[in-house]
Each structure stands twice: as C-alpha cells, then as structure tokens.
Design brief:
InterPro entries: P-loop_NTPase, Pif1-like_2B_dom, PIF1_helicase. The protein is an alpha+beta fold. It has one domain. About 25% of the residues lie in helices and about 25% in strands. It has 7 helices and 17 strands. Strand 8 and strand 9 (about 160) form a beta hairpin. The longest helix is centred in the last third of the chain and has 25 residues, at about 295-320. It is globular, with a radius of gyration of 23 Å.
Amino acid sequence: LRLGMLSQEACTTFKSLSRPLLPPPPSMPNIAPTELFPTRREVSNANMTRLNALPHLHHIFHSHDTFPNAPASGNNKREGLLAGIMAEKDLQLKKGAQVMLVKNVDEVLVNGCVGQVVGFYGYREVIGMLRGACEKRAGPAKTTGFVRNVAIETSGAVTEDKDGPSNKENVENDVGTTKGLREGKKSLVSQKAEERFPLVEFPTPEGGKETVLVMREEFKVEDSEGKVLARRMQVPLILAWAMSIHKSQGQTIQRVKVDLGKVFEKGQSYVALSRAASMEGLQVLRFDPKNVMAHPKVVEWNKTLESVGTNEKSSKAKDCL
C-alpha cells in the first residue's frame, strides 16, 4: 500500500471494509467514528456543523503563546513556528463535543484517544472534592495537567469516581514554565483558578470509561540544540468528528472512517488507512486501486533501501567464501 502496489487479495479486503462499523462501547454510545478528510476546510466544516448543532453554550480556549528565543523577525514568522503543533490556537468546545486528546499521558490516556465533553468545571471546584483522596494515594505523579477519577452526580455536583483507576495521580498543573507573559496580564496560576476546563469522558481498554478534567499543557518547539524557540500553553484537545489526513499522522485512532474518493494527493491513502488501530475499527468508502498513489520519493527511497540490503548480503556472502 505504501508503494502503491496492491494484490487482488488486498483490493478485495479493502473493498470489504465498506461495511458499517460496529457500534462504540456501551459505556460511551455517542462516540462516532473519526472521519478523515484531505483538506482543512472540509474538516472545519464537518466539525463546526456538528458543534453548532449542540444546544449548549460555546466555551473558547485561547492559547498562551510565548517566543523566548525566537528571532524578532515579525509575528507571521513567529506564529509559523507553532504551525506544526497539534494544540489549537483557539479551541471551541461545547458540552457533548467529541474530542481527541493530542498528548500522551500514560498507557491509558494516549495521543489519539477520542472522548466526549460532559461539562466544564473549575480546577478548585474539582480538586477540592478530590484532594483528600489524592493525598491517600502512593506512587510517583505521572500527570501535570489532568485531574483523574472524577464523577458527576445527576445534580451536576463533582465527586470522586469510586470505580476509577486507583493508581492514577492527580497533581497540580505546573505553570511555572510560562515566564515571559506580558506584564499587566493575569498570571496563569490565577487564570487556572478562575477558568472552567472541559471534563471529558474517555473509554478504557476494559470497556469502561474514565472522566478527566483536562487543563492546559505545554507544547514547545526547540532548535537543534534544545533551545526553546516557541511555547504554547493550551488545553490538549481538538474536535474529533473529523480530522485532516495530514494532521492524523502519528495518531492511532480506534474507529476511523475514510472516503478514498476524496483523496487527491500521492501518499494520502496510505496515511489515512494506516491511522486505524485495527481492521475492525476501519471503514473505507469508494476504494479504487487507482486512488492508491505512492509518492515517487517514497518509491525511490524504498529502491535505495533494497539496493543497500542487496549489497550488504552480497558482501557477507563474499566474506564467507
């Protein structure tokens, strides 16, 4: 597939994947497959249509961007440093929104996890209820921007999730790395205390769910010497009803829908189809071998590898003579 060469058996397999996907886990019945699109405009239209259909208020999270060591060569070039970061500059959410986590936390909460926003709560409101439970837990802290084991009563009150993972630590978000904010602005410490963050339900491998308060995390861009050029503090979530094929690179998604009739660039089919965690979680529409085009550079690179491998085998054979 990566080289654009498919056997008849492979083509038959991909065509069979046009069937509807199995329903999501019973614990999270409203999670839809993430649909991959080739353009950002299609992604934005699909996500915003679903978001605007929700009968709840918008919550917008603006990122806090700093450029501690970037050259002072204009705002456009500085902003360009952050173009490759998954975290959005302006993140719009609502209760009921389908979202994807874009940062690894541990073996359960990983980059690519898809969940659903169930509300917005303040850090103090949540941690005050859980602090006693947190202090009783042992072991090293693994997270910095997440409050785990949260449950919501029917009244909307926050309480401890008695069924949640007991070995996950809740620790305060380290915002000491945000030096460089302009004077006169509120510190992120006070902002964290005042902001209402998304409370998100994520499915667990065991078929259950975990509810997590997702706060701001640090995303940074470094030069070859490890010097930080740009830093973004943002809630590590993106809308996940739809996603661009380009942005999906590096993600592993449990349930994916791909319409190959919309693919127009070489190599996009391979990237899109390889995002699924399993064949059971992949739906492929309008599969056509003609749309599976490999990029010429990838083909050439593969030939080079094969040539190197052949030469090495030949050299070893001569050494044995």
